[in-house]
Structure formats: C-alpha cells, structure tokens
C-alpha cells in the first residue's frame, strides 16, 4: 500500500513540477513591458495577449523538464511494480 502511495505522489509531483517550471520561465500575458529603448515585440494581436507569436516550444525541452520527468518515471515504475508482483 505504501508503494502505491509513494508512486502516486511522485507522479503527481512530477506533473506539478513541470507546470510550475513553465510558469516560472516568464510572464504569459503582456509579455514585454513598454520601455523607451526597447522595440515593441511582434505580436499576433495588437493588444495584450496570452502568448507572443515567437515564444516557441522551448518550454517543452528535456533539459528544463528532466527532474519532473524523472519523478514521473519513478512513480510510474513503482505503480507498475505493484501490479506486476
């Protein structure tokens, strides 16, 4: 029973870690504050937006998410080990 609980907690903790890592990387709405020396960013819409057009998919990279993926893999391995045995 304890193995199942630890596996479930690790899986959920990995998902929460990866979501928090994306939110820590940058502000999602109103991406660039107005500064006189900075050019305005190229946005999909003229006003404030949730995502700028050129944000890219860097937040899905393995180098930023490996701790969360590792926690999820260990949690899933623990959950699968209980079902196999």
Written account of the structure:
The chain is 54% helix and 0% strand. The chain has 85 residues and is mostly helical.
What fraction strand?
A: under 5%
Task: Report the sheet with the most strands, covering strand number, pairing sense and barrel closure.
Answer: none
Please compute the radius of gyration using only Cα atoms.
Answer: 19 Å
Q: Please give the number of β-strands.
A: 0
**Rough outline:** elongated
The parts where pLDDT drops under 50 for at least 5 residues are: none
Arithmetic mean of pLDDT: 77
Structural class: mainly alpha
The end-to-end span amounts to 13 Å
> What fraction, in percent, of the residue positions are helical?
40-55%
The succession of helices and strands, N to C, reads HH
Number of helices: 2
Keywords: Membrane, Transmembrane, Transmembrane helix
SSE layout and pairing:
Layout: H1 2-24, H2 62-84
Helix pairs in contact: 1-2
Key words describing this protein structure:
elongated; single chain; membrane; transmembrane; transmembrane helix; mainly alpha; 85 residues
Quick description:
Residues 30-49 are annotated as: Disordered. It contains two helices and no strands. By secondary structure, it is an all-alpha fold.
